[in-house]
Structures are given as structure tokens and as C-alpha cells.
Amino acid sequence: MGKKFLRDINVSLLLLIIIPTFCSCTNEMNMLERNNNEQINFAVSVPSWKSDDSTAGNPAKTETRAPPIADTFLGTDKTFGIIADVVNGSNYTTEIDQEVVSYNATNKIWETVANHYWPGANKTVNFYAYYPASITNGTITHTAGTTPTLTYTVPADATTQVDIMTATGTNVSGNTNSSTPLTFSHIFAAVKFAVGTNGLPSGIIKSITISGIKSSGTYTFGSGWALGSTISSFTVSPSTTITGAAGANITSDTFTMMMIPQIFTNATITLTYNTGTSYKQTISGNWTAGTTYTYNLSKPVNIGDYYYSDGTWGTIAEHSSSTALPIGIIFYNSTSLLDSGHGWKHGYAMALQTAAKSIPWESSNDGIVDNKDVNTNFPTTFDKMKLDMDGYTHCLSMKTYGGSNSKILSNSNYPAYYSALNFGNGTYGSVINAAPKTNNSGWYLPSIGQWYYFMLNIGKASFINNGTSGSSAQASSTIENSINTYINLAKTYNNTSETVYSISWNWCSSEYSASIACDAAFSGDAVYIIGNLSKEYIDNMVVRPAIAF
Q: Nearest Cα to 25, choosing from 222, 184, 190, 253?
């Protein structure tokens, strides 16, 4: 195994990293001797791929991968082609013309179809080998005394692309009595895909396409490529199910793209899920032969984008061909320590539809603390309210342990909690708004801090710290209009979406005291982050769930 060399490169959103690694093994190809004349024989070596992992967004570490030709030698099940010219002064003759070399299991040697022998002293031989022996979509051209060329067009479907290798040995003495070395080299760059550092939505990857790449050219053995002018797109369709966790492979070796080495600018990678959701990124780079480029793909979470019914996230445009529907507005692009510990690290979204209206937080307010995860550590100041981002944990406590006086979580005991936790079941919100089945918390009653960031980031509210509460410097209608711009855009695709309005107060899972719950109020003059309503209060109360993902 040779040395590993590491370097970082920056590209953009999708991620790209790079490691060169050379390693080769030798496999003797001894051909039969005849009388006292030595028959031509070879020692063949195949270097392993260099690996050049790249991130389109951030520098990232490199990693080694198994190449399309995974062996460091040609297995005995394989064949390759060979050309040999004999040089006698200024005269050239072709001794071997594109013959197939295969392994003879009986004699345990590699041999051509016909036997060939060294031409003797004062002559030399030029060898040109290529793998595989038969190259689809390509034509090898050769005349005696010239270096062979391969004219080739890369197939659009990655599963039909071939890892072509060549080896060149020139000026080999005509009376050679030992094995002649032929070192094969990969003539393509290999391109594969994995999940990047920032992750991807979970789901089934239908296809990945790279467009804006030259697809044809002429390769001169031992020299390199002269590119054609045709610009094409190349697609791999792995049908891979991913969890979205960083580092997971999206494409296996079967789906590795074999691309003509080239410098390119403004090429486009399109990642498409089976629901039709697709993400695009423009990249530039320089692919070199024998190097593997692993594009580590990530989808950043942007505030103001939407969370979708298939568990993906992004803009309306990125979902224009998708069967998935927007179900929430992303208002925060990280999560609390507790939520992150559950694996939900991307952010929070607020539901487009409400779960219920005119219902109490607690049907019978007994004046006893209900959230056992908090006990009496109440967010009684505006600064503490902003820090409470654990709506899911409050709901989990209520669901697991119940509330005060051994009251279980039910619609009759805790209607606000119950409606939020059952949102999307057809009774509390439409079934089209049901939470995706994996990699999220499910819907829950948001905390006061989560409502604060929803009003801040989506409503564009500027808050005044009143000590025990926060109020906006703008009129409530200004914040409502900002929020409703997002809701109305989504309503074109999800007609169950409901706008916010004055006068309305939104229940939070946070308790302000043993008998008072926190709420996010649209009050006409301003919006408020506050704790001022008794838990059994009903008038103008709204439940709008949130989700962590």
C-alpha cells in the first residue's frame, strides 16, 4: 500500500473531499516456451484508485473506497486486449493486433489466441494493453509504428459505464528473457456519492444526475485525453434508502460513475427522492484519471423553508415535482441538547394547520404543577422563556407520567396537550398533515421559547423585554402578515393551512406557575410571549403543534 496524501478543497452546498492512494500487486503472465525460443510473457500490475473526496460546501476529510475494479490484480476470470509492434530500425510491423489475453487454467498461464515469440536481438517491441478486451461505445485505432487511440463516448447510465484501463511498454528488447512489466492505469475519473457532514433528509434516493459534463473524447495510450465538444448528463439510479446520517454511502460500486477526466465549471448535481423532491447544486472542478471523487451531499436547513410530509425540507421550488406536501414552516435550524440527543438535529417547524381551538390547557385546574420534568423551575421571566426550547420533553413527561393528582394524559384532562400530540389523525388536524414516520419527534405542544423564535424568525418581530414577559415593538398585524405570507404560499399546495390572526392566544407546553400556563398571544396592539392565563381558560385559545426533525 503506498502513501496517502491529503488535501482539502472548497466547492459549495453538496460536499466533496480527496485522498490519493496508490497500491499495486503483481500477477505473473508466463506464456509457453517453444523449443529454445522464449515466448513473450508479462508481469502485470494494477494500481489501486486514488481517492479524492470532495465536499460542495465545506472542506472535509478524505476516505478510501473500493474501486469499480476492486482487486489490485487482474483476476483469472478476466480478459484484456493487447497490441504489439516490432521495431526494426525504421521499420514497424504489428506482431499482435488487438488479440484477447485470457487465463489458461490447465497450464496456469495467461495467453493470447495465437502464440507469439520475441523477435530477437537488434529489435525492440512496443506493447499496448487495454482492459476490458471488448470495449462497448469505443473504437481502438492503430497502425504499425503509431500509438493506439481509443475514441470513446461515456454512456449516460452509470450502470453501463466501464472501468477502462490501459498499459504501455515501449522499447522492450527483442531478446528479453524475463517477464516484461505492464502497469495498467485507470483512464477515467470515478465519481460516487455519500451523505455529507450536515446530513440529508431520510428517504429513498431515486436518482442522482450530473449535467454539464463532456461525454466523449479520444484517448491516446500512455498520453491522455483530447476532449470532444458534446455536453451531456449522466444519471445513476440507486434506489438507496438512507437515514440521512452523515457518512452513509448513497451509491455502491455498481453505481459509480466512470467519467472522462476534465476541467469543468458550472456543472449541476441533482439529487432526486422517490417522491419527486429534488435538490440541485452547481459545482466546478478538475477530474483526473485514476482518482475517485466522492461527493458528500448535504441539504442545509434554512429558516423560512418548509418541512414536508415525506420528511424532506426545502423550498417550494425544490418540491415542485414532488408528491409530498408542505406541513410546517421551519423557524429554527438547530435543536436543543435534549432533542439533539434523540437524533433530531436539524431544526424545528411549526404546523401550517391548527390542531384545535377554544380548548383549555387543563380541564380542571387544581393549582398543582403538572410538568414533572420541570417541577417548579418555571420560566417566570422573558429571558427564561426564550431559553425553554423543550416542548417535546414537556409533552413526553405528560405522556409518560401524567399530570397532577395522577391524572393521565387524555382529551378530558389535558386537551391542549392531547390535541397537539394527536395532530394529523383526522380528528385533530387533517391526515395529510400527519408527521413523517421516521427521523422526527412527531407533533407536540410547543414550548414558550419555540413560540418566541417562531414570532422572531418568521414573524420578524422585535421584542421588548418587560421583565416577566416580552412584547413586540410592532403591531400584531405586522407580525401576522409576515407569518401569513409563508402560510399562504404553502396553502397553494396544502389547502388545510390556516393563517394566524388577532385576537388569539396560543397554548404552550411551558408552565408559568402551578395554575398558569404560558401562551403566545396575538393581541392587536402587539404580540406577547407571556404567562398570564389560568390553565382552564378557553376563549380565543388555539393549539398549533410543532415538530423537531
A: 184
